[in-house]
Amino acid sequence: MARRVEPDPTTWWDRYGHRLHPRPTDAGSESPSAVGHFDPHSLLRPRDPAPDRGWRRLVHGGSLGRINPGPGPAQLVAEDRLARIRTPLGGPHRVAITSIKGGIGKTTVTAGLGLAMADHRGDRVLALDANPDAGTLADRTSGESAVTVRDLLNDLAHVDSWTALSGYTSLAGRLHVLSSEQDPAAGEAFSRDEYLRVDALLGRFFSLILTDSGTGLVHSAMAGTLEAADSLVVVGAPTVDGAGRASKTLDWLVAHGYGQLVAQAVVVLSQDRASAEVDGARVHAHFASRCRAVVELPHDPHLATGGRLDPGRLRPATRDAFLVLAAVVADGFPNG
Q: How far apart are CA 325 and CA 116, in angstroms?
């Protein structure tokens, strides 16, 4: 009977096309991975990107693609912005949105930033309302606030899966929202330790957690928010009191050991309240000298209603501002 010959491991391939053992190579020759690697994209002929706006799009479409003037500067800026927003995260990243002044637009900024992030990222994004005074984040986004963070806290020991957790959040598009306790008396009991317990659970299931904090920096829950935060967004306005309160917020944070968080912070100047008597350029320059970036959010009639935020009803400049904010915040991610 003929003797069975074992396959040569340097030339034998398994059923999936992978070499069982790498073939030895001489010094200076190509590596085995370079020789044996199959890239399906290499089979496609390279194509120049098509323009998506303006006269360039008209020329490209009118010529049935035979004439391609390429993307214009505005399209390149928009594509770069989206690429920054989609910066991958290797673990949960927590962004605290705060200000010691109420009515400045903090919840609006949280909602707009969350919707922009969730709409353009492929992972899970959560907006958490940690305001102890019956916050309105759910009203501004999903419109649902029947189940709150207090309910989640009470059931924390039994929530051990995504299916279980999803019952405590509502959806605004692709953005998950966790409502604050609507009873102010119960909300006052939301302590630092309770916040951190909830945050630890959320970090198991969400890549990006945006916390809409209350206005009291000395509140116990705020201590937990700042302790867990990886990034900070401070909301102000180009007015004497709006800018002054935002600056005092930064002062307080620096005085209490959060200097590094402040140095990397993003300041949002909401233009809902503005005055021609205030030098907006000086306000912008003041915060630019203290923080990593400053983003101006223009006045928008849809935001001014205080109702549920519908991105489709925003002015183009406002939509762009939220995308700019999302990109600037993503620049602060570990891989940004």
A: 9
What's phi and psi for 233, nearest 5 deg? -120, 120
Cα 164 to Cα 214: distance, rounded to the nearest angstrom? 27
Domain ranges of the chain: 92-331
Residue 264 token pair: 């990397």
Q: Give pLDDT tens digits for 246-292.
A: 999 999 999 999 999 999 999 999 987 777 888 889 999 999 999 99
The CATH topology of domain 92-331 is: Rossmann fold (3.40.50)
Tell which residue, 38, 68, 45, has the closest CA to residue 55.
68
The one-character DSSP state at 89 is: -
| Residues sharing a CB contact under 8 Å with residue 276, sequence separation 6 or more, in sequence order | none
User: pLDDT confidence of 96, banded at 50, 70, 90?
Assistant: very high
The pLDDT, as a whole number, for residue 119 is 95
Q: Are 129 and 137 in contact (CB under 8 A)?
A: yes
- For residue range 127-186, what is the model confidence (pLDDT) as tens digits? 998 876 667 888 888 887 788 888 999 999 999 999 999 999 999 999 999 988 766 655
Q: Give the count of beta carbons closer than 10 Å to the beta carbon of residue 201.
A: 17
Among 169, 127, 173, CA closest to 152? 169
Give yes or no for a contact between 100 and 218, defined as CB atoms under 8 angstroms apart.
no
Full DSSP string of 68-86: -----HHHHHHHHHHHHHT
251-255 contact pairs (CB < 8 A, 24+): 252/100, 252/217, 253/217, 253/226
